Amino acid sequence: MPLAKALGLVFVTMLGAPSVATASGPVTGGGHWHYVATPNPEGASNSFLLSVSCPDQTGCVAVGFSTAGDREVPLAERWNGMRWKIVTTPSRPHAVGSSLAAVSCAAIDACVAVGVSDRVSLVERWNDRRWSIVRVPDPPHSQAAGLTGVSCPKPARCIATGYYLNADDLSRPFAEHWDGVAWTEVALPAPPDADEMYLFGMTCTGGADCTAVGGWDDQRFTRHPLIEHWDGRAWTMIPAPDPDYRHFRGAALYGISCAGPSECISVGGAYIGERHGAAVAERWDGSTWVVMDARHPLDSFLSAVACAGSTACAAVGSGTGHPSSGGNLAERWDGDGWALQWPAIPSGMSDAGLGGVACPSSTGCIAVGSAFGGDGVVTTAEQWVR
After folding, report:
1. Cα separations in angstroms, 221 against 5, 14, 194, 210, 276
2. Integer distance in angstroms from the first to the last C-alpha of the chain?
3. What are phi and psi of 324, to 5 degrees?
4. What CA–CA distances, in Å, run from 250 to 55, 268, 272, 276, 380?
5. Mind listing the pLDDT tens digit for each residue in 27-85?
6. Which residues does 267 contact at the CB level (< 8 Å), separation at least 6?
């Protein structure tokens, strides 16, 4: 079961393939992960959690989607520090395909989730009592659009990013800015030789310091990492290196987290050769993005990262190398290097993957994802404590 960022117009399958290193067992890197049960909607055939935001240790919101028959509906769950609970999420009238791909909470009573609903962007707001749909404009003349990332440094200040199909059926990135009253669509720059472009994740350290990541395809259909930065006035492209794997055939970045304006880490996956691939991690030092040295396991990709500080980051995704994890993969950064971790799942589950992670402190993280539970795909959650 491939873990995917849900975007209805192009359902993006995350990269998973062999890497340059094998893992014979878990390397803890300190602390431990334990499985936390999550509910699934009654009657759903498949359910996924793709993103999570935790303003504090005892309050988290996770989002994704579930399917029943031919209909796909948004899914949201709330963590109170002890258990998860499903919270009702609305869908657009008559919509048959709606999903939430990302969530950001400036406070536990001020969350924004973004996604797609029948080929148009979807935005929902949470006030700790209920979710409500907020009107958002899509780019003019777009044939389809969806939002894949969001960050809210303040309750009345959010920026969301995603991509749309233009009149030529080519994918292009765009941003939406929230001022507490309305959303405004903002165009983004593109490489001069880009064929298609996608944005998958983003983060803000403040209203005038936001970074979005994704990938762009050149005219030979090779994908390269894409990084765009908002300085409070305009979006600009920041050069991003390709990973230096042998037989490199493309790469994209899926998640990003910044401990400060000059301390960011982004993660993703790369294609290697005809069928293979590896996870990717890149680091920003305030002036340049560089590929981080890491020995990722076979069949791995990283979908999200969260940093509680410059020496306390957790990245999650999917990989092979330890049977108890069922595919769950976590890696911890301590400022000097990455350590592999394998969050375990209960027996009877398989084909697991983690799509989102949040670390409200250097001693605690929450990750969410999905796994095959026998009769279908079910939601999962993992908690890391030191």
Report:
1. 21, 17, 9, 28, 17
2. 30
3. -70, -20
4. 35, 11, 7, 11, 30
5. 456 789 999 999 999 999 999 999 999 999 889 999 999 999 899 999 999 999 999 99
6. 253, 254, 255, 256, 279, 280, 281, 282, 302, 303, 304, 305, 315, 317
